[in-house]
Amino acid sequence: MATNDAQVDASADGLTDTAADGLTDVTGLRVGHARVPGGDALSGTTVVLAPEGGVIAAVDVRGGGPGTRETDALDPRNLVQRIDAVVLTGGSAYGLDSAAGVMAWLEERGRGVRVGPEPTHVVPVVPAACVFDLGRGGDWKARPDAATGRAAVEAAAATAEGAPVECGSVGAGTGAVIGGMKGGVGTASTVLASGITVAALVVVNAIGSAIDPATGVLYGAYAGARPLYPDAEVHAAASRRLAEARERSGWPPLNTTLAVVGTDAGLTRAQAQKLAGTAHDGIARAVRPVHLMNDGDTVFALATGARTLDGGAPLALNGVLAAGADVVTRAIVRAVLAADPVSGPGGDFPSYRSLYGAGRRTG
Questions:
Q1: pTM to 2 decimal places
Q2: Of all residues in the chain, what percent carry a pLDDT higher than 70?
Protein backbone atom coordinates (compact mmCIF):
# COMPACT_ATOMS: atom_id res chain seq x y z
CA MET A 1 0.00 0.00 0.00
CA ALA A 2 1.42 3.39 -0.96
CA THR A 3 1.90 6.09 1.66
CA ASN A 4 1.71 9.84 1.41
CA ASP A 5 4.54 12.17 2.37
CA ALA A 6 3.02 13.02 5.73
CA GLN A 7 3.36 9.39 6.73
CA VAL A 8 7.07 9.24 6.01
CA ASP A 9 8.09 9.73 9.62
CA ALA A 10 9.37 7.72 12.56
CA SER A 11 5.92 6.44 13.53
CA ALA A 12 5.29 5.21 10.00
CA ASP A 13 8.36 3.04 10.30
CA GLY A 14 7.14 1.53 13.57
CA LEU A 15 9.88 3.29 15.50
CA THR A 16 8.14 5.42 18.14
CA ASP A 17 8.22 4.55 21.81
CA THR A 18 8.00 6.72 24.94
CA ALA A 19 6.33 10.06 25.78
CA ALA A 20 8.65 12.54 24.07
CA ASP A 21 10.58 9.66 22.51
CA GLY A 22 13.77 11.54 23.19
CA LEU A 23 16.74 12.16 25.43
CA THR A 24 14.71 14.45 27.66
CA ASP A 25 12.66 11.44 28.80
CA VAL A 26 15.63 10.91 31.13
CA THR A 27 14.51 13.21 33.93
CA GLY A 28 16.87 16.12 34.43
CA LEU A 29 18.50 16.12 31.00
CA ARG A 30 17.78 19.13 28.79
CA VAL A 31 18.75 19.84 25.17
CA GLY A 32 19.35 23.16 23.44
CA HIS A 33 20.30 24.09 19.88
CA ALA A 34 21.88 27.18 18.36
CA ARG A 35 22.69 28.02 14.75
CA VAL A 36 25.54 30.07 13.31
CA PRO A 37 24.00 33.26 11.86
CA GLY A 38 24.36 34.28 8.23
CA GLY A 39 22.85 33.41 4.87
CA ASP A 40 25.86 31.32 3.83
CA ALA A 41 26.23 29.62 7.22
CA LEU A 42 25.17 26.00 7.64
CA SER A 43 26.43 24.95 11.05
CA GLY A 44 25.50 25.03 14.72
CA THR A 45 25.86 23.60 18.18
CA THR A 46 23.78 21.33 20.40
CA VAL A 47 24.20 21.16 24.19
CA VAL A 48 23.01 18.44 26.54
CA LEU A 49 22.66 20.05 29.97
CA ALA A 50 22.75 17.88 33.09
CA PRO A 51 20.73 18.56 36.25
CA GLU A 52 22.30 20.40 39.19
CA GLY A 53 25.00 18.21 40.69
CA GLY A 54 25.98 16.76 37.35
CA VAL A 55 25.95 13.23 35.99
CA ILE A 56 28.28 10.26 35.72
CA ALA A 57 29.73 10.32 32.21
CA ALA A 58 31.89 8.30 29.85
CA VAL A 59 32.93 8.28 26.21
CA ASP A 60 33.92 5.82 23.51
CA VAL A 61 35.59 6.98 20.27
CA ARG A 62 35.58 4.59 17.30
CA GLY A 63 36.13 6.86 14.30
CA GLY A 64 39.62 7.30 12.88
CA GLY A 65 39.43 11.11 12.64
CA PRO A 66 37.84 12.41 15.86
CA GLY A 67 37.68 16.02 16.94
CA THR A 68 37.13 16.16 20.69
CA ARG A 69 37.75 18.16 23.85
CA GLU A 70 38.04 17.00 27.50
CA THR A 71 37.31 13.36 26.65
CA ASP A 72 40.35 12.15 28.65
CA ALA A 73 38.68 13.53 31.77
CA LEU A 74 35.95 10.90 31.37
CA ASP A 75 38.33 7.95 31.66
CA PRO A 76 37.23 6.01 34.79
CA ARG A 77 40.85 5.99 35.96
CA ASN A 78 40.96 9.78 36.13
CA LEU A 79 39.87 12.36 38.67
CA VAL A 80 36.65 14.00 37.45
CA GLN A 81 33.60 12.20 38.82
CA ARG A 82 30.67 14.13 37.34
CA ILE A 83 30.08 16.65 34.56
CA ASP A 84 27.42 19.28 33.90
CA ALA A 85 27.16 19.43 30.11
CA VAL A 86 28.18 17.83 26.83
CA VAL A 87 28.67 19.79 23.61
CA LEU A 88 28.06 18.44 20.12
CA THR A 89 29.05 20.93 17.45
CA GLY A 90 29.61 21.60 13.81
CA GLY A 91 32.60 23.50 12.50
CA SER A 92 35.12 20.67 12.73
CA ALA A 93 37.90 21.37 15.25
CA TYR A 94 37.19 25.12 15.02
CA GLY A 95 33.72 24.49 16.41
CA LEU A 96 35.12 23.09 19.65
CA ASP A 97 35.43 26.75 20.70
CA SER A 98 31.69 26.56 21.41
CA ALA A 99 32.48 24.59 24.58
CA ALA A 100 34.12 27.73 26.00
CA GLY A 101 30.77 29.52 25.97
CA VAL A 102 29.17 26.64 27.85
CA MET A 103 32.05 26.59 30.31
CA ALA A 104 31.62 30.31 31.03
CA TRP A 105 27.87 29.90 31.55
CA LEU A 106 28.44 27.09 34.05
CA GLU A 107 31.15 29.01 35.89
CA GLU A 108 28.78 31.95 36.39
CA ARG A 109 26.47 29.55 38.23
CA GLY A 110 29.17 27.91 40.32
CA ARG A 111 28.80 24.61 38.49
CA GLY A 112 31.92 22.53 37.92
CA VAL A 113 34.73 20.76 39.71
CA ARG A 114 35.44 22.55 43.02
CA VAL A 115 39.11 23.55 43.10
CA GLY A 116 39.23 26.19 45.84
CA PRO A 117 37.69 27.26 49.17
CA GLU A 118 34.99 29.50 47.66
CA PRO A 119 31.84 28.24 45.87
CA THR A 120 32.93 30.24 42.82
CA HIS A 121 36.25 28.39 42.65
CA VAL A 122 35.16 25.85 40.06
CA VAL A 123 36.43 24.52 36.77
CA PRO A 124 33.56 23.26 34.63
CA VAL A 125 34.57 20.16 32.66
CA VAL A 126 32.70 20.29 29.35
CA PRO A 127 33.44 17.34 27.04
CA ALA A 128 32.79 18.12 23.39
CA ALA A 129 32.94 16.49 19.98
CA CYS A 130 32.59 17.97 16.51
CA VAL A 131 31.37 17.05 13.05
CA PHE A 132 32.80 18.26 9.76
CA ASP A 133 30.48 20.69 7.97
CA LEU A 134 32.90 23.40 6.85
CA GLY A 135 31.73 25.29 3.79
CA ARG A 136 28.44 23.47 3.40
CA GLY A 137 26.56 26.73 3.47
CA GLY A 138 29.04 28.43 1.17
CA ASP A 139 31.03 30.35 3.78
CA TRP A 140 34.09 28.34 4.89
CA LYS A 141 34.55 30.52 7.99
CA ALA A 142 30.96 30.37 9.22
CA ARG A 143 31.48 28.07 12.18
CA PRO A 144 30.35 27.86 15.82
CA ASP A 145 32.22 29.82 18.48
CA ALA A 146 31.82 30.53 22.19
CA ALA A 147 28.75 32.68 21.52
CA THR A 148 27.09 29.78 19.70
CA GLY A 149 27.80 27.46 22.61
CA ARG A 150 26.41 29.94 25.09
CA ALA A 151 23.24 30.37 23.03
CA ALA A 152 22.78 26.59 22.93
CA VAL A 153 23.21 26.08 26.68
CA GLU A 154 20.89 29.00 27.39
CA ALA A 155 18.32 27.40 25.09
CA ALA A 156 18.69 24.12 26.98
CA ALA A 157 18.30 25.82 30.38
CA ALA A 158 15.17 27.63 29.16
CA THR A 159 13.33 24.43 28.24
CA ALA A 160 10.85 22.76 30.56
CA GLU A 161 11.79 19.40 32.02
CA GLY A 162 10.80 16.66 29.58
CA ALA A 163 10.32 19.08 26.68
CA PRO A 164 10.44 17.41 23.25
CA VAL A 165 13.77 17.68 21.43
CA GLU A 166 13.70 19.47 18.09
CA CYS A 167 15.04 17.16 15.38
CA GLY A 168 16.30 17.49 11.81
CA SER A 169 18.44 20.29 10.45
CA VAL A 170 19.06 22.05 13.76
CA GLY A 171 21.96 22.69 16.12
CA ALA A 172 24.98 20.53 15.40
CA GLY A 173 22.96 18.84 12.64
CA THR A 174 22.32 22.04 10.69
CA GLY A 175 24.93 21.20 8.06
CA ALA A 176 25.09 17.45 8.60
CA VAL A 177 25.22 15.13 5.58
CA ILE A 178 25.06 11.33 5.37
CA GLY A 179 26.22 9.59 2.21
CA GLY A 180 25.61 12.78 0.22
CA MET A 181 22.08 13.09 1.61
CA LYS A 182 21.01 15.59 4.28
CA GLY A 183 21.55 14.39 7.83
CA GLY A 184 20.73 16.05 11.12
CA VAL A 185 19.72 15.60 14.74
CA GLY A 186 17.56 12.73 15.95
CA THR A 187 16.48 11.29 19.28
CA ALA A 188 14.67 8.28 20.74
CA SER A 189 13.99 6.61 24.08
CA THR A 190 12.58 3.52 25.74
CA VAL A 191 11.59 2.34 29.21
CA LEU A 192 12.75 -1.07 30.40
CA ALA A 193 10.58 -3.47 32.41
CA SER A 194 12.54 -2.36 35.47
CA GLY A 195 11.32 1.21 34.95
CA ILE A 196 14.77 2.42 33.87
CA THR A 197 14.76 4.89 30.96
CA VAL A 198 17.39 4.71 28.22
CA ALA A 199 17.51 7.38 25.52
CA ALA A 200 19.77 8.76 22.79
CA LEU A 201 20.47 11.96 20.90
CA VAL A 202 22.46 11.71 17.66
CA VAL A 203 24.03 13.99 15.08
CA VAL A 204 24.14 12.04 11.83
CA ASN A 205 26.93 13.22 9.52
CA ALA A 206 28.56 10.13 8.02
CA ILE A 207 30.60 9.09 5.02
CA GLY A 208 28.59 5.89 4.95
CA SER A 209 25.02 5.68 3.72
CA ALA A 210 21.77 5.30 5.64
CA ILE A 211 20.04 3.71 2.63
CA ASP A 212 20.07 0.07 1.54
CA PRO A 213 21.03 0.39 -2.14
CA ALA A 214 19.03 -2.73 -3.03
CA THR A 215 15.72 -1.52 -1.62
CA GLY A 216 15.85 2.18 -0.71
CA VAL A 217 14.88 1.31 2.87
CA LEU A 218 16.78 3.05 5.65
CA TYR A 219 19.10 0.45 7.18
CA GLY A 220 17.97 1.41 10.66
CA ALA A 221 14.30 0.96 9.74
CA TYR A 222 14.80 -2.79 9.38
CA ALA A 223 14.79 -2.85 13.17
CA GLY A 224 11.26 -1.41 13.18
CA ALA A 225 7.95 -3.20 13.13
CA ARG A 226 7.14 -2.51 9.48
CA PRO A 227 9.76 -0.91 7.25
CA LEU A 228 8.35 0.82 4.18
CA TYR A 229 9.73 -0.25 0.82
CA PRO A 230 9.87 2.30 -2.01
CA ASP A 231 8.37 1.38 -5.34
CA ALA A 232 11.09 0.25 -7.76
CA GLU A 233 10.65 3.28 -10.02
CA VAL A 234 10.82 5.68 -7.07
CA HIS A 235 13.98 4.02 -5.77
CA ALA A 236 15.66 4.12 -9.19
CA ALA A 237 14.86 7.81 -9.63
CA ALA A 238 16.01 8.63 -6.09
CA SER A 239 19.31 6.81 -6.64
CA ARG A 240 19.97 8.80 -9.82
CA ARG A 241 19.14 12.12 -8.14
CA LEU A 242 21.38 11.35 -5.18
CA ALA A 243 24.29 10.36 -7.41
CA GLU A 244 23.91 13.59 -9.40
CA ALA A 245 23.79 15.66 -6.20
CA ARG A 246 26.98 14.02 -4.92
CA GLU A 247 28.74 14.80 -8.17
CA ARG A 248 27.66 18.45 -8.11
CA SER A 249 28.68 18.98 -4.49
CA GLY A 250 32.21 17.64 -4.76
CA TRP A 251 33.15 18.26 -1.09
CA PRO A 252 35.67 15.96 0.61
CA PRO A 253 34.08 13.12 2.62
CA LEU A 254 35.12 14.33 6.07
CA ASN A 255 32.31 13.45 8.43
CA THR A 256 31.33 12.02 11.84
CA THR A 257 28.35 10.58 13.71
CA LEU A 258 27.98 11.69 17.32
CA ALA A 259 25.68 10.34 20.02
CA VAL A 260 24.77 10.97 23.62
CA VAL A 261 23.14 8.01 25.35
CA GLY A 262 21.43 8.87 28.62
CA THR A 263 19.86 6.79 31.36
CA ASP A 264 18.40 7.34 34.80
CA ALA A 265 20.08 4.15 36.01
CA GLY A 266 22.70 4.40 38.73
CA LEU A 267 25.79 3.40 36.78
CA THR A 268 29.42 3.41 37.83
CA ARG A 269 31.87 5.21 35.58
CA ALA A 270 33.08 1.87 34.23
CA GLN A 271 29.52 0.78 33.47
CA ALA A 272 28.87 4.08 31.70
CA GLN A 273 31.95 3.51 29.56
CA LYS A 274 30.64 0.06 28.63
CA LEU A 275 27.33 1.66 27.63
CA ALA A 276 29.11 4.19 25.43
CA GLY A 277 30.97 1.36 23.70
CA THR A 278 28.02 -0.92 23.01
CA ALA A 279 25.93 2.05 21.80
CA HIS A 280 28.22 2.19 18.77
CA ASP A 281 26.45 -0.99 17.63
CA GLY A 282 23.42 1.19 17.06
CA ILE A 283 25.38 3.36 14.63
CA ALA A 284 26.66 0.29 12.79
CA ARG A 285 23.10 -0.99 12.26
CA ALA A 286 21.95 2.28 10.70
CA VAL A 287 25.02 3.53 8.78
CA ARG A 288 27.20 1.49 6.42
CA PRO A 289 30.17 1.57 6.34
CA VAL A 290 30.97 3.10 9.70
CA HIS A 291 34.00 4.03 11.86
CA LEU A 292 36.22 4.81 8.88
CA MET A 293 39.48 6.76 9.05
CA ASN A 294 37.81 10.02 8.06
CA ASP A 295 34.88 9.54 10.45
CA GLY A 296 35.14 10.81 14.02
CA ASP A 297 32.37 8.63 15.45
CA THR A 298 32.03 9.35 19.19
CA VAL A 299 29.46 8.26 21.78
CA PHE A 300 29.02 9.81 25.21
CA ALA A 301 27.09 8.05 27.98
CA LEU A 302 25.38 9.95 30.80
CA ALA A 303 23.81 8.41 33.92
CA THR A 304 21.74 10.49 36.34
CA GLY A 305 21.46 7.73 38.96
CA ALA A 306 17.80 8.40 39.78
CA ARG A 307 17.00 4.67 39.63
CA THR A 308 18.95 1.84 41.20
CA LEU A 309 20.52 -0.83 39.03
CA ASP A 310 20.64 -4.17 40.83
CA GLY A 311 24.26 -4.18 41.95
CA GLY A 312 24.00 -7.75 43.19
CA ALA A 313 23.12 -9.06 39.72
CA PRO A 314 26.21 -8.87 37.49
CA LEU A 315 24.10 -9.13 34.33
CA ALA A 316 21.63 -6.39 35.30
CA LEU A 317 23.49 -3.98 33.02
CA ASN A 318 22.71 -6.05 29.92
CA GLY A 319 19.24 -4.59 29.45
CA VAL A 320 20.62 -1.05 29.52
CA LEU A 321 23.39 -1.95 27.07
CA ALA A 322 20.99 -3.53 24.58
CA ALA A 323 18.56 -0.63 24.84
CA GLY A 324 21.35 1.91 24.31
CA ALA A 325 22.20 0.45 20.92
CA ASP A 326 18.52 0.21 19.98
CA VAL A 327 17.70 3.84 20.74
CA VAL A 328 20.78 5.04 18.84
CA THR A 329 19.55 3.18 15.75
CA ARG A 330 16.06 4.66 16.06
CA ALA A 331 17.45 8.13 16.65
CA ILE A 332 19.47 7.91 13.44
CA VAL A 333 16.36 6.94 11.47
CA ARG A 334 14.49 9.85 13.01
CA ALA A 335 17.31 12.27 12.16
CA VAL A 336 17.32 11.26 8.51
CA LEU A 337 13.54 11.41 8.21
CA ALA A 338 13.36 14.82 9.90
CA ALA A 339 16.11 16.46 7.81
CA ASP A 340 15.32 19.20 5.31
CA PRO A 341 16.98 19.33 1.87
CA VAL A 342 19.56 22.03 1.22
CA SER A 343 20.74 23.42 -2.11
CA GLY A 344 23.05 26.40 -2.25
CA PRO A 345 26.58 27.65 -2.85
CA GLY A 346 27.99 24.98 -0.55
CA GLY A 347 26.39 22.04 -2.32
CA ASP A 348 23.23 20.15 -3.15
CA PHE A 349 22.05 17.85 -0.36
CA PRO A 350 18.64 16.26 -0.91
CA SER A 351 16.77 14.76 2.02
CA TYR A 352 15.32 11.28 2.25
CA ARG A 353 11.84 12.78 2.14
CA SER A 354 12.62 14.82 -0.96
CA LEU A 355 14.09 11.77 -2.69
CA TYR A 356 11.40 9.25 -1.78
CA GLY A 357 8.37 11.15 -0.49
CA ALA A 358 5.28 9.14 -1.45
CA GLY A 359 5.55 5.79 -3.17
CA ARG A 360 6.57 3.60 -0.25
CA ARG A 361 4.75 0.44 0.77
CA THR A 362 4.85 -1.85 3.77
CA GLY A 363 6.88 -4.99 3.12
A1: 0.92
A2: 91
